[in-house]
Amino acid sequence: MNISLQNTDKVSATLTVKLDKSDYQEKVDKALKKLRQNVNMPGFRPGMVPMGLVKKQFGRGVMAEEINKLLQEKVFEYIRENNLKVLGEPLPDEEKQQPVDFDHQEEYEFVFDLALAPEFKTELSKDDVVPYYDINVSDEMVGRQVSSYRQRGGKYEKVEDYQDKDMLKGHIAELDADGNVKDGGLQVEDVVMMPSYFKDEEQKSLFAGAKVGAVVKFDPYKAYDGSAVELSSFLKIAKESVEEHKGEFSFQINEITRFVEAELTQELFDQVFGEDVVKTEEEFKSKIRETIQTQLVGDSDYKFLVDVRNLLVSKIGKLEFNDALLKKIMLLNNRDKGEEFVTENYDKSIEELTWHLIKEQLVKENAIKVEQNDIVEQAKKTTIAQFAQYGMINLPDEMLNNYANEMLKKQETVQAMVDRAIESKLAVALKDKVTLDHKGIEMEEFTKMFE
Question: What contacts 216, CB < 8 A, 6 or more positions away?
Fold first, then answer.
């Protein structure tokens, strides 16, 4: 076997692989012997078909398969051992590749086109000033989180008079034109409703200040704006029957239930942060502010990496690529989308590829490595962030570990955690390489920067 590489330009090369019979024959014979053991052919017992017949019927296909496997193995081995920075996959050279005849040839030559990564150098120093946005934690953000915790720790209580967002339970009865209970009309016991969800403001206002035991007349059809789905659920009738029950109904209020947020007591403090971690309302809010600030560091680091990316892309300038070959590779990877997709998305793909190459170099220069422990810790951080959205901060270690381990059962999730861990470590390393221009910013303004 002979493998040779010829550079056609700075970002392209031709790889030629020459095979003779000694390179592949042993593998072909072994594959045919294995196939013979299982092949079924009329007139012969399994495993007893003459090898000549097996070769005649299957030899060409087996040879093609074994040579193809050998090619893939040796080509990628050559690329790896020679540290070639190949973009995408090697493609057969359409001009130089000669037709292959597996029936009559014993020696073969295969020619591949390689797209090579361009050579460039990333350089960062303290002379490079990069903005770093410190997101301010506003009182409003703290207040929203306090309210979230109070709702989590809240409970439902029975009350005597109705206020907005209360839940009512009672008896509903259809009325006639005179406002009396309609003979044979619709009546439903233990109906539960929340007037605050009515679409009609006038119907909603009819329940203001109503007390337990009161009877309120209202029009469900108007209240729910004629929605067949909501009315059928509310009145316990088929959607097709809704139009037959327009008009007023009476609602006798038997029970009023109100959700009451938890008070800012030691019990709530302990539920959120653990026993005796904070002991006053002031400490509680301060701890919340500190927690939010910690969570926002990841957002600031992300924006920092975006700005470093823009800086380095500007410094390096437009990189040279073998556009024709990369478009072929992109088309092969998106066969179902066609050439139009490649044309429309190629420039964006090159932007992402450029950053990928820059990031690879930065990772290597800064000796960044991701170990299994880093992946697990990143999964835990992701789990904490997800639960934090629902106001759950003080997660038990066992629960945290179980959720993280469950996430890492999916290979795509593992890769995502690897990527995040790399970017997290990269942000830390690069912040020491450049001069940071710290800028305080409100969350609203920070968010607008990504629109």
Answer: 206, 207, 210, 250, 251, 253
Model pLDDT for residues 179-190, shown as the tens digit of each residue: 999 999 999 999
Structural domains of the chain ordered from first start: 2-116 (3.30.70.1050), 129-146+276-448 (1.10.3120), 155-260 (3.10.50)
pTM of the entire structure?
0.74
User: pLDDT tens digit string along 148-162?
Assistant: 889 888 899 999 999
